[in-house]
């Protein structure tokens, strides 16, 4: 395919077209100069697959329960499929009725049962517990398959089933067909064989269950072809390949680091950007945002580095903050099956060579052991922070003991980093500063926490080109809170200003996370905002 016949445009008339003639496959090209902070494009998700622990959120727009007319908005949780929740806004758009009457509820209930049978779950599980066993990528794949069938196949074939008007934004299904399809599902031949067997069985069991339901429904004549037309291995592979190859993580950047990924979603217009470890654009989800007026999750692309006309617009497919070239390439090869040849990995430029010097791991390292220690420590700190709300005086004896264990573990982790000669700007080195700062703040030692935050900040300066700007802003926000505790308000405002600059650039000035950060400035947003307006991080 030489050229896709459509352009990507937004309300600021910044345009890009999708062109495969300039190398690198199908990719997005800037049609005019883009400036740092420019909003390039917004679009809505085709569908969403939330992870089990987040299925209390709306399955269509990921909105949370919010205050509405002084009453808590009511979220509907389907008691039949036990997978779908629907917020009050989406209920007003007719989504609840569509879920129940279109057949989506039935299909997802059958998916839960089929998933349980194929993957041989614990027989003592309740149906709700079985629903939690459904993988988010499989859920997303089945939801896209069903939506496409319900909107296209039934309409085209003039089926007799009741066809409901869709409450969702229109989808150009021919664009879905143009998406890259990852064909290598499974890292080894054994994994591929297991996947093929499991998905064949899943499709067969689902069809059997759907036919069983038809036989029990006096108003619906059973038709095996009706279900096989879309619930088959070939169709499943095609959509699953697109979900893996082009799907985006649904992330809530306002949540604590380590708790931000809520699931996966597919955004058609956002599926053509090439990867770069040092990207010039940033992808973000916008929750509690009804700008589209539809029952849908909105995602945006913002420019984070000045981009000239004719350049590719790139995003990062993976978190690259603090990883060396070998690690980045391995993760991309494992997850997306390509060898990264971006500027940062090829190291043709001085800035890329300098970054690699600051993150390259020594031979024989055991960095994964250090990562595992940090992950466990982070989870424990999140629990403690949630329990005491960052107030050391609220810690009980058990919590103080757990915190002391965390502090000891972090010190052990730091010794391991030093003994292995891990570079100071590598991911695990930076994370050790962040974790120690959080633990020290929780213990009440604000001055020591400030020193750890400053060490984090200095280490990041060496690798800003590959560091996630929003993750950086989140850590800066914690740094500002520590500075306030020690009474350094001048430095606090400087750090908040830097955090706001990163967030405004990557997420936009109306993002809920930026608004929450603005509230910490206590009536001085304009002064700080102007101070950083023209900075170029």
Spatial arrangement of strands, main beta sheet = 1-2-3
> N- to C-terminal separation?
38 Å
Sheet with most strands = 3 strands, antiparallel
Percent of residues in helices: 40-55%
**Average pLDDT value?**
83
User: Structural class from helices and strands?
Assistant: mainly alpha
Q: Give the overall form.
A: globular
**Counting H and I runs of at least 4 residues, what is the number of helices?**
20
- Tell me the strand percentage band: 5-15%
Low-confidence stretches: 1-6, 9-17, 20-24, 65-72, 523-537
- Which radius of gyration do the C-alpha atoms yield? 25 Å
What features would you describe in this structure?
The chain is mainly alpha-helical and 537 residues long. It contains 20 helices and 15 strands. The strands form six sheets. The chain has a three-stranded antiparallel β-sheet with strand order 1-2-3, with no helix packed on it. It has a three-stranded antiparallel β-sheet with strand order 4-14-13. A three-stranded antiparallel β-sheet has the order 5-11-10. Strand 1 (3-8) and strand 2 (16-19) form a beta hairpin. Helix 5 (136-156) packs across helix 9.
């Amino acid at each position: 395919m030489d050229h896709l016949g459509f352009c990507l445009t937004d309300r600021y008339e910044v345009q890009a077209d999708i062109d495969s003639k300039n190398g690198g496959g199908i990719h997005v090209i800037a049609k005019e100069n883009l400036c740092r902070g420019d909003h390039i494009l917004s679009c809505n998700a085709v569908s969403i697959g939330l992870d089990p622990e987040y299925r209390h959120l709306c399955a269509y727009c990921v909105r949370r329960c919010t205050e509405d007319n002084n009453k808590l908005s009511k979220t509907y949780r389907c008691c039949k499929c036990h997978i779908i929740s629907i917020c009050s806004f989406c209920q007003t758009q007719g989504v609840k009725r569509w879920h129940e009457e279109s057949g989506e509820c039935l299909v997802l209930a059958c998916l839960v049962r089929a998933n349980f049978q194929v993957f041989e779950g614990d027989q003592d599980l309740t149906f709700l517990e079985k629903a939690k066993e459904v993988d988010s990528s499989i859920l997303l794949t089945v939801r896209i398959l069903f939506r496409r069938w319900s909107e296209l196949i039934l309409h085209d074939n003039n089926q007799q089933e009741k066809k409901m008007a869709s409450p969702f934004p229109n989808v150009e299904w021919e664009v879905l067909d143009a998406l890259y399809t990852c064909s290598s599902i499974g890292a080894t031949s054994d994994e591929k064989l297991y996947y093929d067997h499991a998905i064949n069985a899943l499709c067969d069991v689902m069809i059997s269950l759907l036919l069983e339901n038809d036989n029990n429904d006096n108003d619906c004549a059973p038709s095996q072809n009706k279900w096989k037309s879309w619930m088959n291995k070939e169709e499943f592979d095609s959509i699953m390949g697109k979900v893996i190859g082009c799907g985006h993580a649904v992330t809530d950047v306002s949540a604590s680091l380590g708790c931000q990924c809520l699931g996966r979603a597919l955004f058609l217009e956002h599926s053509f950007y090439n990867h770069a470890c040092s990207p010039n654009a940033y992808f973000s989800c916008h929750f509690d945002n009804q700008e589209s007026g539809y029952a849908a999750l909105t995602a945006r692309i913002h420019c984070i580095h000045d981009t000239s006309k004719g350049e590719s617009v790139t995003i990062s497919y993976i978190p690259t903050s603090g990883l060396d070239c070998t690690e980045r390439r391995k993760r991309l090869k494992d997850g997306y099956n390509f060898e990264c040849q971006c500027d940062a990995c090829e190291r043709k430029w001085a800035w890329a060579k300098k970054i690699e010097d600051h993150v390259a791991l020594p031979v024989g390292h055991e960095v994964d052991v250090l990562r595992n220690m940090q992950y466990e420590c982070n989870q424990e700190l999140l629990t403690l922070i949630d329990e005491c709300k960052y107030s050391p005086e609220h810690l009980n004896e058990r919590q103080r003991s757990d915190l002391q264990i965390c502090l000891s573990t972090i010190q052990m982790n730091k010794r391991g980093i030093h003994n292995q000669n891990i570079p100071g700007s590598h991911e695990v080195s930076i994370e050790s500063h962040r974790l120690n700062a959080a633990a020290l703040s929780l213990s009440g030692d604000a001055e020591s926490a400030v020193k750890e935050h400053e060490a984090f900040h200095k280490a990041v300066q060496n690798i800003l080109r590959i560091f996630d700007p929003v993750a950086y802003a989140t850590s800066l926000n914690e740094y500002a809170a520590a500075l306030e505790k020690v009474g350094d308000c001048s430095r606090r405002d400087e750090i908040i200003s830097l955090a706001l600059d990163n967030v405004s650039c990557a997420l936009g000035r109306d993002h809920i996370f930026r608004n929450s950060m603005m509230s910490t400035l206590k009536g001085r947003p304009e002064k700080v905002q102007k101070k950083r307006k023209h900075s170029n991080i």
